[in-house]
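Archive entry. Fields below.
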Amino acid sequence: MNQAELKQPPLRRLDVDHRPSVVLGADEPLRLACGVSLGPFSVAYQTYGSLNADRSNAILVCHALTGDQYVTGAHPMTGREGWWPRMVGPGMPLDTDRYYIICSNVLGGCMGSTGPRDIDPASGRPYGLGFPVITIGDMVKAQAMLLDHLGIDQLFCVIGGSMGGMQTLEWASRFPERVFSAVPIATAARHSPQNIAFHEVGRQAIMADPDWHGGDYLIHGTHPARGLAVARMAAHVTYLSEGALHQKFGRHLQDRKVFTYGFDADFQVESYLRHRGSTFVDRFDANSYLYITRAMDYFDLAAEHGGQLAKAFHDTPVRFCVISFDSDWLFPTSESRAVVHALNANAANVSFVEIESDKGHDSFLLDVPEFFAILTGFLNGAAQHRGLTQA
Amino acid sequence: MNQAELKQPPLRRLDVDHRPSVVLGADEPLRLACGVSLGPFSVAYQTYGSLNADRSNAILVCHALTGDQYVTGAHPMTGREGWWPRMVGPGMPLDTDRYYIICSNVLGGCMGSTGPRDIDPASGRPYGLGFPVITIGDMVKAQAMLLDHLGIDQLFCVIGGSMGGMQTLEWASRFPERVFSAVPIATAARHSPQNIAFHEVGRQAIMADPDWHGGDYLIHGTHPARGLAVARMAAHVTYLSEGALHQKFGRHLQDRKVFTYGFDADFQVESYLRHRGSTFVDRFDANSYLYITRAMDYFDLAAEHGGQLAKAFHDTPVRFCVISFDSDWLFPTSESRAVVHALNANAANVSFVEIESDKGHDSFLLDVPEFFAILTGFLNGAAQHRGLTQA
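PREDICTED_STRUCTURE:
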């Protein structure tokens, strides 16, 4: 595995310095599932806590569709808290006094890892749709190259929710010897047709925006912000449960007592969605949204193993903790159960918990005490088996 | 009630002749919920079967969001079948040998009833967003004026699914003496925050399209077809169940055996959605979509009665048959149950059926034999009570 010198791609508009970042695949490029060889490419990452002497306490956190490597602490672009602030830190479930936490921006992303915003060396212009389509497997392979660079042979744990859970399953399936334990959360071993449909709506919203310019908006000096905001709004509805929407907003009006009989955001839920859409476009790249949703759509672990999910985990040595949330209708418990059945068919070491929460798919990002307790318990047990001493 | 002469608005691009249509409110305008007085205005409608001598066999069919008055037979604009072809006709549940079926295009629509595409007499230009926001109550009041025009005092039945069910509930609540029986299907007495959220996504998609021009696209000679297509696609996903999507499409690819690793419609479900979006824009007006979704959002029968739904049906003489479908997650059975509870609190005459169907919200438009059987049975019973002789 080649490890090139740390090298930054040129800073772009809206970009900040996403160090640390490493250039990989300079000598031996990454062979992507689509057939393209990519390299050199950058992977930007963050670490929290310290790697122990025998390099056995590393946890790889895999981020979701619109997440990034800034798991906790202030985000350098938005100034807001990372996406898992109560999960990662001293004394928290992913205890930084005990574990070495790594999170890297996925390939195809827009936070410092190579993606469609970057300059295509072949043309000297931003890739746009010239960027190769990547898969969950490609993301995981790039993460494995990062671990090589960091000198970590085996992860104590790989963990993630939603698309992060897909990467977790892919890690356990592709590199079982490099994964001691795995926690796929609110996820599935293949993207359902309903979820593909929702993604397609978002992509069409982006591509319908004239500012998208066939993906070449950087060259045109534009950004398809309106289309991207609509995509984000459509997706956001699917992240919440109906119960959460009732509880949070009901039919309450926003800063008014009567209907305006117009198309302003009369209802709080409208105002909330518009806010979610408009803040998102400041921190995310529209083409990355296309590429990452596509990677999720393509994910189908069983299909890669002759249609049998059990074969994806043949004789796996990995210890699993599979977690779902009962109000999550985007990645319902039935999807997690399918994974558990496949693991059981291999007599794998697996615990499975469906957690009660009325917060929908977003539960995995929120404060759900039972979720934290279960995770802490599982990691404690796994740490004991791994021989990790208490800090 | 004033009944003006039949008069056609000028034909517009893409429009066909939507006769019969009647001009109402010429002398006494319709006072809308928003406070605006509208009149004269047109209502376009279709009838099927014959009105009997004592005018007691009329059934008002209320159409859904993107429906229209062409319930059965060839649609004059698309040439395709109407939206309820196996429900309305000789020997069918709404038996045209026995009943006189009326369906009118809702106020705010785009099939001949006055809506935002029409010329604002005050400005001589198309209304656009200058059209007053209408409510489900306004739609029903306009229908009542049409019935006055047709000389029908009491409907044997009012029936509709989804937004048509909202109109059905509004009819029973507002004009109980004019409704002998009512069949609200796959509907709710108020639009849920989740459904408002999905509507808002669709509206934002339309309004994000530069061809929308603040609603004045007719003046600009454009049509926000891309935005409207995205809105339709987003909505369409919510009309189907996850099971139906699995059964219909699964993860099957469209006309190919391997991924293209691109953004074409690789999956059948994508191709289907794109088709649904692109055919819709040929037959529907974008501003009408804004207005009609808004009418649904505003619907809240309990709120109009001090927060108590039971009061909306105080001492109702109407016979109800409330129908839901178990795979409908847009208007789930719990919404129908709330209506039934309110009716029970009035000791109303109500039957309630949750029908098993894996087809989601769209079930009410599809061939579901149990649905047809229940409807036929209910109407037969009601006809007996009403003294309608068998044809």
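CURATOR_NOTE: Chain A touches chain B through 58 residues (CB under 8 Å).
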